[in-house]
Amino acid sequence: MSNKEILTLKIMTKEISIACPEEDKAGLIVAAEILNSKIASIPDKANALILASLDLAFQSTQQTSGEMVNPDLTHEIANLISHVDQSLQN
Hints:
Elements: E1 4-11, E2 14-21, H1 25-40, H2 48-61, H3 71-89
Antiparallel strand pairs: 1-2
Helix pairs in contact: 1-2
């Protein structure tokens, strides 16, 4: 089992800190960059986070290789969205 470390990500204008295993750090950084890119491309800034998250979650279900959706990835996305949502409410 790997040790978890604190990773600070910037989503929109908020910084959030999450505990993650070292091997997940690079993937979460890329995921945050993808989310920020999606948010920036949405004109409706009031709902940008929700719409970008929905779009990314939908894309993760549309795998062309016929594989099942990775439940760990889905769980990680849901956790990241939850952390961001909590951070934005503060």
